[in-house]
Write a structure and sequence with these properties.
Elements lengths: L1 E6 L6 H22 L6 E7 L5 E2 L5 E2 L2 E2 L8 E4 L7 H9 L2 H12 L3 E5 L2 H7 L7 E2 L6 H7 L4 E2 L5 E4 L2 E4 L5 H13 L1 H10 L24 H12 L7 H8 L3 H12 L3 H19 L4 H7 L5 H12 L3 H8 L6
Parallel strand pairs: 1-2, 1-6, 2-5, 6-7, 7-11, 8-9
Antiparallel strand pairs: 3-4, 10-11
Helix pairs in contact: 1-6, 1-7, 6-7, 8-11, 9-10
């Protein structure tokens, strides 16, 4: 048997805990069908430090058995946890010292460890990810970077893998993560069968199409705030730095320097982000042609718009509409 431990915590996502086990169960069915009843299969246990039932964030109680330091597993899954605000989340992380020590022991004994979404914070807290590639849920990027600066955070990837440590992005990516782990432990053929039978799209390898271009960056520079407001009001107009600087009564050099210091980007890049976010909204909710959308957000050359969109979003405007249009027909 391939022994798996699925961790459960108070405030974890029940879908992440149960869904991972469901995928292992489907893998077992395919293993038995291809290799017979004697095939090596997955065996899993739901575990916690206390051994007491964990209360999932949706109110579902999850029965667990107590972690035993002497028990060894081939695979450990760290599920996603509900993010109830920074303070509440920090309290959850602060209570995981024993779990982190156990994870280190399991990894050092040869186990694969897979951490999903906010669960990647617990894995990073062990120190095992220091100097290694990892990913996490995109909207907690800044918090993750601040807490774990030694981790090589690669937010563009849905899944990362480094030395038997597999991280996944936002919560539903546990589906892809489970397929990756199955591939590593029992082979690509079974992993492919599981993905097909469960309609798991393994082509979703990038988080880029989901990432907001206008991530909130707190700053206290009143000049830059006024510049942002000006750019928002004049989004469709051609940007002339000299015109913007004159409107703000500063030099071009001062404007660019202050803008970069506050937002880590130039005014031109910020304007591009404004336009592309507006284009995304139009692609998601309407039926305007790409040519018309380009014009609506300030581009006279559709080819240049499409090229920039593909470069920054990771796919063409048409492909983006096909995937994300809200009122698209089935």
């Amino acid at each position: 048997m391939i022994r798996a431990a699925i961790l459960a915590f108070d405030e974890c996502h029940a879908s992440s805990v149960g869904g991972f086990a469901d995928i292992l169960q489907v893998a077992n069915a395919h293993l038995a069908h291809r290799q017979g009843a004697a095939a090596e299969q997955f065996e899993w246990q739901f575990v916690s430090i206390s051994g007491q039932p964990a209360m999932a964030s949706n109110g579902l109680p999850l029965a667990t058995r107590r972690l035993e330091p002497s028990e060894r597993y081939d695979l450990v899954f760290v599920p996603s946890l509900h993010y109830g605000g920074r303070q509440a989340f920090e309290q959850i992380l602060a209570a995981q010292a024993d779990t982190c020590a156990w994870l280190v022991d399991q990894w050092q004994a040869g186990a694969w460890i897979a951490a999903n979404c906010t669960g990647t914070f617990i894995l990073a807290q062990t120190g095992l990810l220091d100097g290694k590639a990892a990913t996490t849920t995109w909207w907690l990027e800044q918090q993750f970077r601040a807490r774990y600066p030694q981790v090589d955070l690669q937010l563009r990837s849905v899944i990362t893998e480094a030395e038997r440590l597999v991280c996944a992005g936002a919560s539903a990516s546990y589906l892809l993560q489970a397929i990756r782990v199955i591939e590593r432990l029992v082979g690509q053929a079974i992993a492919s069968q599981v993905a097909r039978s469960m309609l798991i799209d393994v082509s979703q390898t990038s988080q880029v199409p989901y990432l907001p271009l206008l991530a909130e960056r707190a700053h206290t520079d009143a000049l830059v705030e006024r510049a942002q407001q000006w750019l928002q009001r004049h989004m469709t107009q051609e940007l002339r730095i000299s015109e913007l600087a004159a409107a703000l009564a500063v030099s071009d050099r001062t404007l660019i320097r202050r803008f970069k210091a506050a937002l880590q980007q130039t005014p031109l890049t910020y304007l591009q982000d404004l336009r592309l976010e507006a284009a995304r909204a139009l692609l998601e909710t309407g039926n305007l042609s790409v040519d018309l959308i380009a014009g609506e957000v300030g581009y006279t050359d559709t080819s240049s718009f499409s090229r920039l969109f593909r470069q920054r979003i990771g796919m063409s405007p048409g492909a983006y509409r096909n995937r994300f249009q809200i009122n698209a027909s089935p």
